[in-house]
């Protein structure tokens, strides 16, 4: 398979791709940001709790 055939087949495949609409893109991007912030907050809270628990355990 040479480069010309590869590019030709790639172009044919890209014609079949359905890209999301602008509103779908905004919705999905917003969802990713919200979920990322929620996971970051959860991990931060767990880290804080474990750190404080370890400090109290070692202070005994």
Summary of the model, kept short:
Helices cover 85% and strands 0% of the residues. The chain contains 2 helices and no strands.
Structural write-up:
The protein has two helices and no strands. The chain starts with a helix and ends with a helix. The mean pLDDT is 95. The chain has 60 residues and is an all-alpha fold. It has a domain at 20-60. Helices cover 85% and strands 0% of the residues. The protein is elongated.
Fold blueprint:
Blueprint: H1 3-15, H2 22-59
Which features would summarize this protein structure in a list?
60 residues; 85% helix
Ends apart, CA distance between termini: 71 Å
Largest sheet: none
What class, by secondary structure content? mainly alpha
SSE string, helices as H and strands as E: HH
The beta-strand count equals: 0
Individual helix count: 2
| Low-pLDDT segments, ≥5 res | none
Q: What's the rounded overall pLDDT mean?
A: 95
**Which descriptor suits the 3D outline?**
elongated
Q: How helical, in percent, are the residues? A: over 70%
User: How much β-strand is present in the residues?
Assistant: under 5%
Question: Which radius of gyration do the C-alpha atoms yield?
Answer: 24 Å
